[in-house]
Write a structure and sequence with these properties.
The structure is a single chain. About 75% of the residues lie in helices and about 0% in strands. The protein is an all-alpha fold. It has one domain (about 1-165).
Length: about 170
């Protein structure tokens, strides 16, 4: 039962990764469209392009965080810690994991609250886009980041390695 649930969550995380990739590819396409429109219509940039451009920046940043954590590609500066003894490095890693989990939960909560406020107050951008569309990627992305950090925590506690994982 729990294995099926974990597989489903992993599949959703993979889908968010694909969506993030598509969005990253669409950013230059949008910019090209805006440049062409600016050349054709000298009145300036259409106001919707600012909102859509911002939306396209938010989605890969937040929706891809969990997947980036899973593959171990988050930025880590280890110049100083690599010179420390193994035991001290282990303690620092646990502290960093705890801080990452705590901050992710706080940002998840704040993002969820912002979505709720945006929906309940019918907030819109200057271009009349519903504001919650921009906000929704924060709690979704952070929920999957919290999941990935929790899985990492469990693997560290139970000393699970790649070869001992089966299907999850």
């Amino acid at each position: 039962m729990i294995t099926k649930l974990l597989k489903k969550v992993n599949q959703v995380s993979e889908i968010l990764h694909i969506v993030s990739g598509i969005v990253v590819i669409s950013i230059p396409v949008l910019m090209l469209i805006v440049v062409i429109m600016r050349a054709i219509v000298p009145a300036g940039v259409p106001i919707w392009s600012v909102d859509v451009g911002a939306l396209l920046m938010w989605f890969p940043v937040f929706l891809g965080t969990g997947f980036v954590w899973r593959i171990g590609r988050h930025v880590r500066v280890q110049v100083i810690t690599n010179k420390l003894p193994e035991k001290v490095r282990g303690i620092i890693e646990w502290i960093n994991l705890t801080i990452a989990l705590a901050l992710s939960l706080v940002i998840f909560y704040a993002g969820s609250k912002e979505v709720w406020v945006s929906v309940s107050e019918f907030r819109h951008t200057y271009s009349e886009f519903p504001e919650w569309i921009f906000c929704i990627c924060v709690p979704i992305g952070l929920a999957f980041l919290v999941y990935e950090i929790a899985v990492y925590f469990v693997k560290k506690i139970f000393h699970v390695t790649q070869s001992s994982e089966k299907g999850v």
